[in-house]
Amino acid sequence: MEDSRQYILKTAYQLFLQKSYKAVTFKELMQKTGFSKGAFYHYFQSKEHIFEAIIDCYLSIFASVDFGELSQVSLRRFINDYFKVLKKNQAKLSFVAPEGTDKGNHYLLIFEALRIIPDFKDKVHAYHKDEMNAWIDIIKAARAAEEIKSDISDRQLARLFINSSDGAVLRWMMSGQAGDVIKDIEEVWRNLYALLKA
What we know:
Elements: H1 4-19, H2 26-33, H3 37-43, H4 47-61, H5 75-94, H6 105-116, H7 120-144, H8 154-175, H9 181-197
Helix pairs in contact: 1-4, 4-6, 5-9, 7-8, 8-9
Protein name: TetR/AcrR family transcriptional regulator
InterPro entries: Homeodomain-like_sf, HTH_TetR, Tet_transcr_reg_TetR-rel_C_sf
Keywords: DNA-binding, Transcription, Transcription regulation
């Protein structure tokens, strides 16, 4: 049987995805989970506390790629490894999203977290720093192995990969269209890699 704390988190996450953090009330959370106020407070002190636990869980699944596990010798293999991890992480998140929920709402919750959770920006900044360093390292290795040819600096090439994925996610969210954003990013990165090889 599902742990009570996990059940609360899963139920709250589904509600936040459907309605937004702000629109969900603490009373609604209690009603949906079936817990009394006292039982609820045994696990979480507030709606904010629940939201913070959900965002920590989200980060641990989706936004914390272990770059050390990706190829360190080939940019092509680094990209392939990266997408294997992203697809696996996407599958871990999809089980909690109710049918008909806009997948872009995952990202909207991240924007809410940036505003609500005090240390969230620091966590995101640390992740982005690791991400940038990993891209720079693999681009240096690829350049040294003559896998890629470009006069663009390692840092700027890293930014091209990172910013193209961030832009694809933002465009996907704002368009409201169905589609697989990871597949879109994969296509952009493979084309960018092909240009660097030329």
